[in-house]
Amino acid sequence: MPPSGMAAVTIAALGVVFGDIGTSPLYALKECFHGPHAIAVNPVNVMGVLSLIVWSLVMVVAVKYVFFVTKADNDGEGGVFALLAILTGAPKVIPKKIAILLPYLAICGGALLYSDGIITPAISVLSAVEGLKEAIPEMGYLVVPITCAILVLLFSLEKYGTARIGRFFGPVMLVWFLAIGTVGIVNIIETPGVLTALNPACALRYFQENQWHGFIVLGAVILCITGGEALYADLGHFGRLPIRNAWLSLACPCLLLNYLGQGALLLRNPGAAAQHPFYQAVPQTFLLPMLALAAAATVIASQSVISGIYSLTQQAIHFGFLPRMRVVHTSSHTKGQIYLPAVNALLMTACIGIVLTFRDSSGLAAAYGLAVTGAMNTTTLLYCVMLYFAWQWPWYKVLPLWILFSLFDLPFLGASLIKVLDGGWLPMLISLICITIMTTWQKGRQHLRECFDRMSMPLSAFLRTLREIKIARSPGIGVYMTMNQHLTPMPLARTVALIHTVPEKMVLLTIQMVSAPYVATDKRLKVDDTHKELGLYRMIAHYGYMEHPTLAEISELSKKTVVYLPLYDCTFYLGRETILPSKDTPVMQAWRRGLFIFLSRNAWNAITFFDIPSSRVVEIGTHLEV
User: Fold this and answer.
1) Nearest to 348 by CA among 117, 126, 127
2) In terms of domains, do 491 and 430 share one?
3) Alpha-carbon 21 to chain mean position
4) By three-state DSSP, how is residue 474 classified?
5) 70-88, pLDDT tens digit by residue?
């Protein structure tokens, strides 16, 4: 890539990847001195908190995520499910007990990211609009209504995708970072002694002075690195090199300058902590423009997190953690740009609900911190397990790295847990709901697969029947979707049993999700024509967990195989499951069974999910007990 192209990608990365962490100066330092567990504004505390913020940005974001964790990409994609996918292909045998726990660990990480995705738009937009109290105090009562209006507008625009407006994200965030960096420099020049905070000894002195209370304030310091986990999840948008360049060249320096600038203001004017240090540090002349720029930056930050939730949901669907739902591709050029209407509606409702509940960013800060620290600890565990089993690092290299990461992750998590009653209950509740839904769906589908396996005839027995018994053949091609190529699909067996006929050509189609995010087109389709003399073909279509399979594509690719599937000349035989309560020992508790049945009834069926022409579908019902 030429230098000019790399520069453009690096600037774009500022908007998509660093939007979340880029807006943290709006609330991080404020919460340390004005939150529910605020500490006194004096030189020791200001310098100590600044030192903690500086070294958290360096050690957690730069060292942990930018230089280490982002190397663990799965064909360019990042996030907890990418780590899970890497581990599924680990060359070293993973002990059974650990292997069983890994999907649940990834589910917990995904659930925490969902809570992060709900809280981020709320706290980001709310903290930006709170600047209205500084610019026009008498209009402070409009903060909540304006925040809700912006959130409604933000989620309403999601259906149009980020393809058209994405090119504006980077330049706006470039202006944002330069603006906050400049504000920081102006304040540092007035109080250059604040640069002493770069010395980690200031943090040690802070803990000596405050002891237990100093530890509690870590729950607010964590807010400065809230975008670290999203950074890794957004890895697939640009790749590691542009993200690293954007962080080192602009994002990190400007963030450090702004935090130090706010600290310089607090050293000169301790009373600023009672208001909003970020806006107090801005010269009065530029307050309204900065307010507008902050609102734009937080909308961009929210957009990037929401897009990440869409990708997370798509991965969860393909891993079997969530039911199928409508996925809309908003760009014909970029695979990763998708929109999920159901998820969008739920996110908007949840965001507006928590804004109306908490009504200010201070109340949300405790909730935000716990969501982020929980996700960070989950990533650390999965990453270290991946190093040992997939990359085969020796334990004496993995252990020191885990200890280094945990020196920050665990204290931050402990400090956030203390704030459960102050708002930390919110991400715990959201995560619990998400974990319950994902584990219920996973367990229910696993049970149904076992039921199908028990009820289905081995394919070898069906082929023997075809050879030995003369069965009437109807002209045309019948496509039977199946999860197991070694078993006879239930609709095919029922067709023989009920109407004593089968199509002239039978294609057993399996759509198989692989552990990679994408599959090359030339490797997409595999056809086994071993039994073509009986008119039976076995076809497997491979898709990555970031891709959406469609029958139109499979039909087009089949032109190059031994059996062509013309989309409007085939008949698709599908099974329709009717789930009933088990008369014997139930597989799951009554409330969980009810949840699974509810999810099943509201999941998109194969016709809509795979874009199968409904006029070419024959459905055959099956009763299954749970």
Assistant:
1) 117
2) no
3) 16
4) strand
5) 998 887 778 888 898 888 8
Q: Is residue 409 part of a domain?
A: yes
Q: Which residue has the tokens 């076992």?
A: 450
The model's pLDDT over 604-614, given as tens digits with 9 standing for 90+, comes to 888 888 889 98
For residue 46, the enclosing domain spans 9-442
DSSP 567-606: TTTEEEEEEEEEEE--SSS-SS-HHHHHHHHHHHHHSPPH
Does residue 487 surpass a pLDDT of 80?
Answer: yes
Q: What DSSP element (H or E) covers 86?
A: helix 80-88
CA distance 507 to 529: 10
Q: Does 525 share its domain with 419?
A: no
Q: pLDDT for 525-538, tens place per residue?
A: 999 999 999 999 99
> Of the candidates 389, 408, 442, which is a domain's last residue?
442
Q: Which of 132-146, 275-289, 579-593 has the lowest mean pLDDT?
A: 579-593
Residues 6+ apart with CB under 8 A from 498: none
Q: What is the pLDDT of residue 166?
A: 56
Within 8 A by CB and 6+ apart from 523, the residues are: 542
Q: What is the four-CA torsion angle of 55, 59, 60, 63, rounded to 10 degrees?
A: 150
d(C-alpha 217, C-alpha 29), whole Å: 10
Query: Rounded mean pLDDT of 567-585?
Result: 80
CA distance 579 to 568: 31
Cross-strand partners of 578: 623
Q: Residue 253 sits in a domain of what CATH number?
A: 1.20.1740.10
Residue 2 lies in a domain: no
pLDDT reported for residue 2: 45
- Give 3-state DSSP helix, strand, coil % of the chain, rounded to 5: 70, 10, 20
Closest CA to 447 of 224, 626, 264: 626
One-letter amino acid for residue 417 of the chain: L
Compare 59 and 359 and report the one with higher pLDDT: 59
Question: Which has more confidence, 198 or 167?
Answer: 198
* AA letter at 174: L
Q: What are phi and psi of 120, to 5 degrees?
A: -55, -55
Question: What does the pLDDT average to over 539-545?
Answer: 91
- Decide: helix, strand or coil at residue 482: coil
pTM of the model: 0.83
Q: Would you say 133 and 140 are in contact if contact means Cβ atoms under 8 Å apart?
A: yes
The DSSP bridge partners found for residue 542 are 512
Total domains present in the chain: 2
CA 23 to chain centre: 19
Q: Read off the pLDDT of residues 450-469 as tens digits, 9 standing for 90 and up.
A: 888 888 889 999 899 888 88
d(CA 71, CA 267): 40
For the beta carbon of residue 349, count every other beta carbon within 10 angstroms: 12
The token pair at 516 is 């990679």
pLDDT above 80 (res 335): no
CA–CA distance, 87 with 69 (Å, rounded to integer): 14
Which DSSP state fits 457?
A: P
Distances (CA, A) of 43 to 184, 206, 216, 242: 18, 10, 19, 38
Is 124 a domain residue? yes
